[in-house]
Every structure is written in structure tokens, then in C-alpha cells.
Amino acid sequence: MKRKLWTLLADRQPVAVVAADCLPNAWVIVKALQDSHDVPVGGGTMEIVPCPRTEASRTTSRARRLGCADTFLACLQRGYFILSFGGLSLDTLRA
Fold first, then answer.
1. What DSSP state is assigned to residue 35?
2. What is the mean pLDDT of the chain?
3. What is the dihedral of CA 47, 49, 52, 56, to 10 degrees?
4. β-strands 88-89, 4-10 pairing
5. Whole-angstrom distance, CA of residue 90 vs CA of residue 85
6. Which residues contact 26 (CB under 8 A, 6 or more apart)?
């Protein structure tokens, strides 16, 4: 499965980069981010757009340095990489 990077925008401001093979799976990851209170839950508009090339390159480089380039689900604007949420992981998204 080839993953793409998506930018999560809350009120048009980037809050996370999500790695998913398709848009529906990106929304599954966003829901998990919301449930864990890592991104805003409501009140404003949330949208997912393809990650701009510069941001994608920067995120991928940081993930490679940390050894999680092939396994992370999301990278928060604070620089934290999320590898799993309870039962949600890259393997469960593939199933």
C-alpha cells in the first residue's frame, strides 16, 4: 500500500500531517486524533487536503531520522509522531 501525506486543516490552519493510502483512511486517523484530543474536536471547519510538497518532504525527512517513516499515522504540528491509537495502527488500516 502506497501511503500519501495529507494535511489536516482546522479553520484553515495546519494542525497535523496524516499518512494514509486514501482519503477515507485519513479521516479514520483524524477521528482518532480528535478522540485523543490531539487536534481540535469541533467548533470550526476541518478539512483534509493533499500535503504540500515542502511540508511532505520535511515531515518524511524527520520521520526517517526517527526511524518511523514507514509506520507513522500522523505528525502533529508540535513535531510529535503518532504510531498508533489503541487498536488503530498501520496494520489495522491495511486489513
1. H
2. 89
3. 90
4. unpaired
5. 10
6. 6, 8, 18, 20, 48
